[in-house]
Amino acid sequence: MKQEVCTGSYVTFKLKSTTVLATALFFLVSNYVYSQTDSLRTAEKQSLSIYAGFGAGICNSGAEVEIGGTLILRNNWGMAVRYNSNTLAANNVPADYVDLVLFMPFLSNPLPLHYIDILSVNALREFSTNLKYLRFGIEAGPALVMSRTPVFIPDPDYVPLLGSNYIVTHEKKTMVGFSLKGKIELPVTRFFGFEVGAYANLNPERSVIGVEININLGLLR
Fold it and tell me: What percent of the chain has pLDDT over 70?
């Protein structure tokens, strides 16, 4: 019982810490964008933008891939639909977990992983600059979070040095989260460009923070 209380407190502490960090990151990006009043143009755009993007990045202790679509109206407001697939190192591995095949490590089981897939619908605000090849953006919105958390079951048939002493399965959970993103866009041409962003998703299971680089294709400007 004492261990469960400690574990719960640790998880709560980690979630609160992640939430504070993600919120600070979002407001930092927002304040930076708004502070560039001399160089950013918030006048209406010449035309709307609609494009698809795909890319990859790093998050927490893992990796991430993303696909999505973005619509920006002439008044610089718009929306983005994004699907992020995050692969994280498991943070609930038992202290006595063993996975070893003597002299043949390639036969060992894969490292236990935690999978978090996020589908978010974000409202966004774009900020143009005096350079047509550079603009900024911030976005936020609700998200559907699908988590597959590793579950460790002691293996009664474990033979030392011949595999893992735990059987690893995954528990599926679906929940609601909240996504944030700040980005720098480089529309190299009217139909092709790059995007560098920092993103976060806050959820009850395991919040995610990461950075990514995307390629954008479509009507960018």
Answer: 75
pLDDT of the residue at 128: 85
pLDDT in tens, 83-142: 999 999 998 999 888 887 666 666 666 778 999 999 999 999 999 888 888 999 999 999
Q: Which two tokens stand for residue 41?
A: 């143009």
In the three-class reduction of DSSP (H, G, I as helix; E, B as strand; rest coil), residue 36 is classed as: coil
SS (H, E, C) 42-104: CCCCCCCEEEEEEEEEEECCEEEEEEEEEEECCCCEEEEEEEEEEEEECCCCCCCCCEEECCC
CATH number at residue 39: 2.40.160.20
The domain containing residue 185 runs over which residues? 2-219
Q: Which residues are CB-neighbours of 5 under 8 A, at least 6 positions away? A: none
